[in-house]
Amino acid sequence: GIRGSLSETTPRRRDRGNGLIMNGSNQNLSTEQIYKNLVVIWLGLFISQLIFLVVIYFVDPNVFRLDLNKPVIDQNAALILIFAVVGVFNLVLSFALKRKFLNQAVSDQDVSLVQTAMIVGSALCETVPLFGLMLAFVAEDPYFFIWCAAGLLGMILPFPLRTSLLDASFKKGA
Questions:
Q1: How far apart are alpha carbons 65 and 81 in whole angstroms?
Q2: Long-range pairs for 141-145 at CB < 8 Å and ≥24 separation?
Q3: In this predicted model, which residue has the larger pLDDT, 113 or 27?
């Protein structure tokens, strides 16, 4: 794995004297180092969504020719509606779980939950462009880009913030 990354199974504690986070491997990580790791992970997940568009283009570039005369919902209405419901559900769930993990990170003073919040939120958002990818190939849906845009927008929102790490590292009022 990534050296210095936080895993769910590695116990951590904050050393109140020097501002470093201790993990189970006796490696000290500053909040800045943890933040940089989170940004790299987030960037990888974000770029993977852009790769979906590249894959669609190389497999079938004709899908990118938008025909505005074609109805949004055609003979594949059931499939499109199922994907729409599941996609919206996943987006809403990603925000709810991110908020839950961030709140728990602050209350438990566990910075690893900040990483969990970002990864779970991003992974659920990544399902939406996957639905668009499937619709582009299976249903030849010319509006697949809406799915990609929704997923990318959803990915921007769980961008890791330093304040989340700081809040999980320092007890407020202490």
A1: 22
A2: 141/76, 141/80, 142/63, 142/65, 142/66, 142/67, 142/70, 143/66, 143/72, 144/56, 144/63, 145/53, 145/66
A3: 113
Hey, what amino acid is at 74?
D
Q: Which two tokens stand for residue 46?
A: 């974000």
Distance CA(51)–CA(55), nearest Å, equals 6
Model confidence, pTM: 0.73
The set of residues, in sequence order, having a beta carbon less than 8 Å from that of 22 and lying 6+ positions away, is 12, 13, 14, 15, 28
Place of tokens 């050393």: 15
Q: CB under 8 Å to 159, separation ≥6 — which residues?
A: 42, 118
> What distances in angstroms separate CA 22 from CA 31, 154, 163, one per listed residue?
11, 32, 19
